[in-house]
Amino acid sequence: MQALSGKLCLVTGASAGIGAATARALIAAGAQVVLAARRIERVRALAAELGPRAQALELDVRDYDACSKLLGSQAFDLAVANAGMALGTDRIDQANPADWSEVIDTNIKGLLHTVRAVTPKMVERGRGDLVLLGSVAGRQVYPGGGVYCATKFAVRALYEGLRLDLAGKGLRIATVDPGMVHTEFSLVRMRGDQERAAKVYQGLTPLAPADVADAIVWIVTRPAHINVGELVLWPTDQASVSVVHRRETSRG
Ligand SMILES: NC(=O)c1ccc[n+]([C@@H]2O[C@H](COP(=O)([O-])OP(=O)(O)OC[C@H]3O[C@@H](n4cnc5c(N)ncnc54)[C@H](OP(=O)(O)O)[C@@H]3O)[C@@H](O)[C@H]2O)c1
Questions:
Q1: Is residue 74 within 8 Å of 50, Cβ to Cβ?
Q2: Ligand 1 centroid vs 7 CA: distance in angstroms?
Q3: What is the distance in A from the centroid of ligand 1 to the CA of 225?
Q4: Residue 126 located in a structural domain
Q5: Residue 123 lies in a domain
Q6: How many folded domains does the chain comprise?
Q7: From 64, 142, 148, 159, the catalytic residue
Q8: Could you give the CA distance from residue 29 to residue 7 in angstroms, rounded to a whole number?
């Protein structure tokens, strides 16, 4: 029997990057997985590839009514609140407040909507795993990252709040805080500018989405009495949010 056989799992933001890799890893561990994202055609294609234990769900986590309606009636054993993004690297005195709203609504309110929708059934059953995607940006701040970092500091506060609110209910709550992971994150942040996005990872070996997925599967397959709380994963080439070791490349 595989480690997660018979478990029903939710992954938000499963259309790309860490979420897609996590869905893949959970399926490989035997779970049934609901893959949620806005780009339904992407999650449908991935679910089709992953087979009958994978199910695609069109969901915008910013919409609480949709989260409540589509997630609230399902008895999830695990929810990975992964959907998240950054927009731009502008200074706070120069940035567009509309960008802040999108990032805050996705990373803080979207995560809360997801958690609010799935936890009542977990509390009712006296078990369940919540894994929140934080970041090392929830521990250190870098120039041009103030608002994104604030949302990830918020994820850490919510992780602590959930542990306190749900103490004694049988749930396990974890936050996974990666450093640089090579996903579409920078492409989204740089609004589709491939060259700027590629520069973020130039000359270093970032984490792969599968590395983070592997850590998530490890967390949720510990014996029931162990709650891995905060897991920080750095690429070996990254010493802090702003100190990164880059090797010389032919492109300089
Ligand atoms: N990459 C990194 O270096 C890094 C480091 C630390 C933490 N993280 C965190 O890891 C998480 C995943 O990011 P990633 O690196 O895998 O980026 P990614 O490749 O851009 O994937 C982001 C995912 O979030 C989904 N998403 C965005 N807004 C959404 C919304 N309103 N509703 C539902 N889904 C939404 C996207 O799907 P749709 O666009 O299809 O909705 C996509 O599947 C984020 O929380 C990010 O902050 C990333």
A1: no
A2: 23
A3: 30
A4: yes
A5: yes
A6: 1
A7: 148
A8: 10
